[in-house]
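Much of the work behind modern protein science is quiet bookkeeping, done one molecule at a time. The protein below has been through that process, and both of its lines are reproduced in full.
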Amino acid sequence: MSRTNKHIQLNGKYLQDAKTLLDKQDYAQASEKLWGATAQIIKAIALKRGKRLRSHEAINKYIVEISKELNDKSILVYFSVANSLHQNFYENWLAPETVIQDAKIVEKLIKKLRPLAN
């Protein structure tokens, strides 16, 4: 399996894991899986284009490039949501309703990004 496909596979796994964790009301763990799904699809796109992203900073900079390329500023807004979910894993400060709503936003982001990875 190629590295790109591995990232795409992990993206799907983490999204599914997040749904399971949301059903179990484990919002902190679901938050991290949603962040992981986001990071994996961005890494898949970068790798497909010959670039390896090895840090949060690299992922943050690359999503700006993608947003510009697609002329879609909503990508940056959605990515900020994913970032707050990553923080929530450590702090567990978001209300359950917020995590549930943010999960829908992350799914929208991934739906926008997935065609670039395939």
